[in-house]
UniProtKB/TrEMBL annotation:
InterPro entries cross-referenced by the UniProt entry: RNA_pol_sigma-70-like (IPR039425), RNA_pol_sigma-70_dom (IPR014284), RNA_pol_sigma70_r2 (IPR007627), RNA_pol_sigma70_r4_t2 (IPR013249), RNA_pol_sigma_r2 (IPR013325), RNA_pol_sigma_r3/r4-like (IPR013324), WH-like_DNA-bd_sf (IPR036388)
Pfam families for the chain: Sigma70_r2, Sigma70_r4_2
Family the entry assigns: Belongs to the sigma-70 factor family. ECF subfamily.
Natural source organism: Marinithermofilum abyssi
Biological process (GO), any one: DNA-templated transcription initiation
Limits of the RNA polymerase sigma-70 region domain: 20-84
Coiled-coil region list: none
One annotated GO molecular function: sigma factor activity
NCBIfam families: sigma70-ECF (TIGR02937)
Keywords recorded for this protein, A-Z: Sigma factor, Transcription, Transcription regulation
Residue ranges of the TM segments: none
Protein name according to UniProt: RNA polymerase sigma factor SigW
Residue span, RNA polymerase sigma factor 70 region 4 type domain: 119-171
Family matches, as PANTHER family: RNA POLYMERASE ECF-TYPE SIGMA FACTO, RNA POLYMERASE SIGMA FACTOR
Length: 178
């Protein structure tokens, strides 16, 4: 390791320390943006690491707080945009999904009944509130694990389980009424 490498690390470490000093400030902004403590912590951490990686682009004459705030709001907007794109893709995939392929052992009447039932279930799922619909689609139509759903939707695993429980309960109630 050369003397230049040591100097670079020291500058980078000092910059990281400066970033860490703004952690509370960033968290308060993140909490206002997300409305959720876990998401706010994640957004704060992601912003600090992104700023650390882009430290060479920081112009020292500018306010560090303003630079970080801009970086955080841009990151938040990007995440929101990605989430809405994922949901659109999920809904498209959901609409195109087919019934199970074990139909070759069923009679024509049974196949028709199964297709009608599946269509009815799809309609009921479409009528669910979005927070419930998205976990049902991921779990039952795409066979995602709780962890995969948590990562995809960027929500805690416990929330995934709660939303699935409530969604299934709503579906059961709706399907039993008709």
């Amino acid at each position: 390791m050369s003397l230049e490498d040591t100097g670079k690390r020291t500058v980078t470490d000092e910059f990281l320390e400066r970033l860490q000093q703004h952690r509370r400030y960033l968290y308060s902004i993140a909490y206002r943006l997300t409305g959720n403590p876990e998401d706010a912590k994640d957004l704060t951490q992601e912003t600090i690491w992104q700023a650390h990686r882009k430290s060479s682009k920081y112009v020292y004459e500018k306010s560090l707080k303003a630079w970080l705030r801009t970086m955080m709001t841009n990151r938040f907007r990007d995440q929101k945009r990605k989430k809405s794109l994922k949901l659109v893709a999920l809904e498209d995939a959901f609409i195109q999904s087919e019934p199970p392929h074990s139909t070759n052992m069923m009679s024509v009447e049974e196949q028709v009944e199964q297709r009608l039932l599946l269509e009815r279930v799809k309609e009921e799922i479409q009528d669910l509130p979005e927070i419930y619909r998205r976990v049902i689609v991921l779990r039952h139509f795409h066979s995602y694990s709780y962890t995969e759903i948590s990562e995809t939707l960027e929500i805690p695993e416990g929330t995934v389980k709660t939303q699935l429980f409530r969604a299934r309960k709503m579906l059961k109630e709706r399907l039993s009424k008709k």
